[in-house]
From TrEMBL:
Pathway: One-carbon metabolism; tetrahydrofolate interconversion. It comes from the Bacteria. Keywords: ATP-binding, Ligase, Nucleotide-binding, One-carbon metabolism. InterPro entries: Formate_THF_ligase, Formate_THF_ligase_CS, P-loop_NTPase. This is Formate--tetrahydrofolate ligase. Its EC number is 6.3.4.3. ATP binds at T78, P79, L80, G81, E82, G83, K84, T85. PROSITE patterns: FTHFS_2. GO terms for molecular function: ATP binding; formate-tetrahydrofolate ligase activity. HAMAP family: FTHFS (MF_01543). NCBIfam families: PRK13507.1. The gene is fhs. The lineage of its organism: Bacteria, Bacillati, Bacillota, Clostridia, Eubacteriales. Pfam families: FTHFS (PF01268).
Amino acid sequence: MPYNPRSMDPTKYKDWEIAQEAEKYLPSVEEWVEKLGLEKDELIPYGKTPKLNFLKIMNRLKDKPDGKYIEVTAITPTPLGEGKTTVSMGLIQGLGVKGKNVGGALRQPSGGPTMNVKGTAAGGGNALLIPMTEFSLGLTGDINDITNAHNLAMVALTSRYQHECNYTDEELAKRGLRRLDIDPKNVEMGWVMDFAAQALRNIIIGLGGKKDGYPMQSRFGISVSSELMAILAVSRDLADMRERIGKITVAYDRTGKPITTSDLDVAGAMTAWMRNTINPTLCYSVEGQPVLIHAGPFANIAIGQNSIISDRLGLKLFDYVVTESGFAADIGFEKFWNVKCRLSGNIPNVSVIVATIRALKMHGGGPAVAPGRPLPAEYTEENLGLVEKGFENLRHMIGIVKKSGIVPVVCINAFYTDTKAEHDLVRRLCEEEGVRCAVSNHWMYGGEGAAELADVVLDACNEPSNYKPLYPLEMPLRQRVEMIAKEVYGADGVSWSPVAEAKAKKFEADPQFADFQTMMVKTHLSLSHDPTLKGVPKGWVLPIRDVLVYSGAKFLCPMAGDISLMPGTASDPAYRRIDVDVNTGEVSGLF
């Protein structure tokens, strides 16, 4: 008998309590083998969260037609987030209630947000992913493997630099090494750990005697910002991953030439650490639908999507696959549209745009919204004027999805403070835009509460997709950025700093960068580069201050403003409320 969402009122029970109750109803791993139609050797045991053998399953099902492909995105969010993962889980459960063979393909959470203020991104209420503890605390070790592989590259670099400082060319040759002439002031990579540790953003390493290495400035980033996470997200198979890892730029020599992991003879060992990450992990909704977990967050640089591998696998195993893009449609969906779909060749049927009355009111001129502070009255009382004015942001996001040729559907993620009049207003405005709209109460009622959304999405899946990328790969970098800025963000144009323009010209002139993807980096809190500008800003220019290179992932990342690869921990982090029952081993306090 499956878990009944009506048995746990999310206004009275916390997410971790709902998760613990729902896990009592999970089928055994053996039952999942039968339920998914797997061969025994296609499931790799790992407690409650086994991995699926991607290569074996894909080889067996290579001739099976793909299922329907559904992406979830959102309007520009408040700093609190608008529930894309909760909607994704609710839609999966709603399609399950409709009797459909449905599964999800989502990302693994990072320890940084889990132990900080954002939580695990496991959904919420009765639209929740389980087992929540395993999902939230390391899962099957993919992020740990990425951390080890990344840091091994830095071990290789720093030890090689030490040897080059201590030995002559002849002595290096006796040890089977050639001098790379590493420039300690031009190191591309730093170290990583999967926590938000602002004290490690800038460090000095190599202090002590010469046996301890040589001093150089270095840094830490959060593990999910590693290029290896981006590589995991876009690799098609293990061979593709191995090739990409070998092209990662770790540092530069004194002439400015890149020094790669292959130059350091460490690419093979890094791939050895990463070998098991190629297989997605099997998790579940509280109502028993399968969800493939693969790749991680950090939407600005590490693409902000689950992996191409998990999408490909899901499209073979399920008739309907629900996936999610990080941030709003101007960032996450744009990368899904122009990068992920281009690399994977998978053509989406529908894009669900998540909106909340809260976010619409903010874009309509409502007071500032801040985590940890009570919501002003404007957000908990009916205010049709703010909703209608804020619809301008949702209208813009609908336009972005329409430009892709993918069919848009608006989901109003219902909060108990919303009113029917506010919902009806959004429905009417969506109808005027020629877009389907559904109100979903999945947080409260699970799949039953998402039934209307499921019906609307099923109807939209019958409409043909006319997917087309925004720009051809042959288009030069600066023209791509100009097109994204104008057509997606609504900017009047782009301004380039001297450094960024010089780099862009260099990349455009070098054939080796011709097939690199354009990975835009900007704030997710505004359509513009300025997080304080809400709604649909007018009369502005996008400033590009730098262009980062991910040579293994094959990304060029134009930077619109500053970005830190190491977030900071807030004054009231989640870890203050997380604990373990010493009698049962159950974890409490996760959200």
